[in-house]
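Data availability excerpt. The first of two example chains:
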Amino acid sequence: MNAEGTDIIIFVAVVALRLLVPLAIPRFPLPAIIAAMIIDAVDQTVFQQFTDLNLDNYQSYDKALDVYYLAIAYLSTLRNWQHMLAFETSRFLFYYRLVGVVLFEATHVRWLLLVFPNTFEYFFDFIEAIRTRWNPMRMTRNLVLGGAAFIWIVIKLPQEYWIHVAQLDTTDLIKEDIFGVPTDTSWSDIVSDNVGVFIGLAIALVLIVYGIRWYVINKLPKPDWKLTFDVDKHLDDLTPEQIRAAALARRERLFDWDLAEKIVLVTLVTSIFAQMLPDVDASALQITAAVATLIVINTVLSEFLARRGFGWESMLGEFVAMAVLNAGATAVVYWLLPGGERSINLGNTLFFLLLLTLLVVLYDRYRPHYLARRMG
């Protein structure tokens, strides 16, 4: 296989991981989002080391796929988070960051990412880490808001400045300023020349892990359950009847805040992806109009079926059916366009349809959980 073919395989494999791994977040929030973060952290290095791909557009590609897994994380909070203050805080942090990314993609002004830091991601990790052993409902207002403020000010602001404003490369800094070697020096050479340093680091890491373990066992409140990463193990605050009642109550009105939020969410996400994909010339107004139209069509059909007693047993079945519906609606629009204006890129259109369908299906599935808790 030639080098170009190998580059394509590696690129497709990495993108597939970045798209598929986040789908586990609703059921296994902490390990899935950590896996997504790790893939996000290493993908550029993989591309640099093993391919000859042009990475000039990497920043937009990376931000778009970050937003994708963060959107799924936010939607999972609709399903999983019982603590209303924690949920409302996470919702604000998520949309605040989303607006910042849209502004960055439109202007390419890097300091905007410092003003709109990605606090949501670490706040999500913070809450889900607590859930692995403790009931999140035990969290006080001060703990929730104090945790968000600490993450924003102490962790994310320095990190965003380092990455997006100063644009410093941690690997290069370690090689040049700590080990005093050129940036193209391999890590195997650095380790072999500094064995004592790395042994010391390993010992320090073991001591840190032991110290954290000691603190968790001896200083933190008594756990409510054994360590688990499966959120469904202890997500028993709602009955299926309560969820169905909330879903039915929501269907009393077609045009409501649910529909508005879906349009805002999907429009922002697709606008960000539009900056990443080639040959996308649609304006923000055109994207918003297309997204709003498809979501209204989806909602009308879903409500029509639901009011006649039809329900989707399988999320996959619902996704496939709605994807086919959206493809059909897009085909009709394409057919109605004058011949000279039929400039729809098939690949990009298919990608946007699948992305839109996924977000809408997850939102419609998980929103009734949130509403049931509010009603209760």
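And the second chain:
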Amino acid sequence: MAHYIELTPVDLLVAIGLIVIAASISIVLKLGLTRSLSIASARCMLQLGAMGLILKKIFQINTPLLVLGWLLIMLVFAGREAVRRSKTRYRWINLDTLLTMTVSSIVAGGIVTQMVIKIHPWYDPQYLIPIFGMVFGNSLNGICLCLDRLTEYVRSRGREIELMLTFGATRAEAIRNGARQAVRTGMIPIINNMTVAGIVSLPGMMTGQIVAGASPMQAVSYQIVIMFMIAAANAIGSMSIATLAGRRLVSSHGLNLPGQ
């Protein structure tokens, strides 16, 4: 019979030794990553510890207003992180990323939680928060990659785009190839993850469920649903941000690149 093994504070201290190993390698090879590793490790422990305490309270209270409020906070922070990671800045970028993540998460996460898993009640935080958290985390990576690729295209093909506009092309026509490349770039990570899932790596949710005692086939089923959800969210997010950013960066009169 499968059973769940609880971790103690001593176990966590032993796990910290793994970060010490990584930091030691950085010191020996003079990689200059020791400070970054230390800060990232401390933030990871603090943020996850705080999240554990918050989720414990949310699970106890279990009201739709509180669950949706926490999801909104997660969404805002995810949008800000997407902007922070992007090399590009333009006016209304925060609004564009927030709208993009809202649409992609509602469509992909909503279908999974309400139509596939059919959670009851519909706001059950045990399922809603972790699933939407995975959508937010993966969508922001796709959005960043898509934004950077699109901006790079507009900068490198600026004269070509302006020439097309001069000859009567619409904004959508002038930037179409760049938008396609950007959406493709945003989707590459999830495609790579799906390609090696199960053979090279066991994805996080599947591993967590197996460790928690779920049957391997149920864990596999959940992981398939999650991977497909992330793929849909990345596709929707990349397409949406490419469309919105394209309209900001290219007008009917020319380019609106930052600094120009």
